[in-house]
Amino acid sequence: MGKKRFSAYMKILFLTSLFMCLGHGASAPTKGYPLRRSMWNYAREFAENRHHESEFNRFITDLGRRESGNNWLSVNCIGCFGEWQFAESTVHYLGFKHVTLKKFKKDPDIFPPEVQRRALESLIKVNLVLLKKYQHYIGDTIGNVIVTKSGMIAGAHLGGAQSVKLFLTSNGILDKKDVLGTAVSNYMRKFSFYDID
Prior knowledge:
By secondary structure, this protein is mainly alpha-helical. 59% of the residues lie in helices and 2% in strands. It is elongated. 23% of the residues are buried.
């Protein structure tokens, strides 16, 4: 069989299989079609939710690793404590008024890992509300940083939502640093690759 003839044969075979597939997909819906479609939608939503949940867990684990080496008993040199290095004022703002640095040092069980995670999730929700008007920046590149939702959350965790707002609205010129010298842009860049929703 010649090269041209083989090529023509392959084109006919491809088009035939394409039309057969299209014909099957374009046929009239059958009796069980709505059920199959709803099952497909449920499966897709379930898979998407599991993916975002997995990405969120990966994000907070990596954030904890960066903050404290995932050590829930950690206290740094400026008095931030726990796996995600909360300031005492932040913990109080989130409603955990019984937790103080002094009490935590004496008895870490007043702020155990599961309560720290709840505090982090609350802080993320607060920061997302504060940054809601700035989500139109997602996808833009500012100061050599691709702006993402996860990067904005991480930047807000480091320096507060206001620092992220300043970074975005100043086109990266105002890049606040924490007491230890880490810039908001550093966290926004480092934590920009998580698909959280």
